[in-house]
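Hi team,

As requested, here is the filled-out complex form for the beta-D-mannopyranose run. I kept the field names the same as last time so the parser does not choke. Let me know if anything looks off before we queue the next batch.

— J.
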Amino acid sequence: MPITEPLKSSPVITRYPGNPILRADHVPYGPALVFNAGVTKFRGRYVMMFRNDYGSAADRTLLPSRTTNIGLAYSDDGIHWDVQEKPCFGLHSEEIIRTYDPRLTVIGDRCYVCFAVDTKHGVRGGIAVTDDFESFEVLSLSAPDNRNMVLFPEKIGGKYVRLERPFPVYGKGGKDSFDIWISDSPDLKYWGNTELLLGLESVPFANDKLGPAAPPIRTPHGWLTTFHTVDIDPARGRNGWEDSWKKRYCAGLMLLDLDNPYKIIGLSSEPLLAPEADYEREGGFRNDVIFPGGMILEDDGEVKIYYGAADTVECLAAAHVDELVKLCLKG
Ligand code: BMA
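And here is what came back:
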């Protein structure tokens, strides 16, 4: 059933007035789109790994789809970015088509990157580690189809924990209907204890699929984490560069138990962010898409949320951590 209610962003969150904070023309190697970044604070500065796709709205034979790099930018304030000269990461082989949608988590003194990999035999979720954003060691690649992985920033009960989103098409009768799952690992290589965390039916503003968004942050009340939600309406038509785009992506928010993140202790029944701003709704490759990939808790309680908008630009919004927790607990 299409979602007929208008979807609005929560009043607790404010978009940065200078959005977008990163666009294709900020990047020296000429991509068409810059979006879906992972962002964290690492060794005293903000670091962003962003997705950049090549292509053109004008030349329809060049629609972006399979031509993706991952670029790198640094910042002292989390708002203004110094984009590095070259893309920094991507797996390359006969089998691999592209690497995309990075998410960054600092654990101890190392930075871990979760990413999606399209291969000739399905979509895999990968985890790599880096100390300098120049060399990366790949620690694990999942079985297909799985992606949208995010790591918790510390071990819980002696184990690493990740959220993930497999897409069991066959088991769901051949249609999209995807949920968020959770697994743990002793070493970030071998993953198990996999359980369903959040089913699509629990989110009133989604009817198609969910996926983890930015990696969780610790609060005294629980692990706070965003997720993306998708609703589809077959009546929607052209809404971007492609002939047809029927989906809308919003951001949702939930709170997980600190000692047992397999347990949801709060879930907002309304979107945290729904597409409303021009740069989220118009002129993009795929309009009406909000795709958070980074969340940073500042010392004063401000939470910065970084998100890709319309699969075209990277944006920032902020809220106070207490307000976000309240939103989850209110239900
Ligand atoms: C998802 C992913 C994201 C993208 C979104 C909207 O399936 O491919 O990278 O932002 O679709 O196109």
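Two things worth flagging: The mean pLDDT is 96. Residues 36, 101, 249, 286, 289, 291, 308, 311 surround beta-D-mannopyranose (CB under 6 Å).

Thanks,
J.
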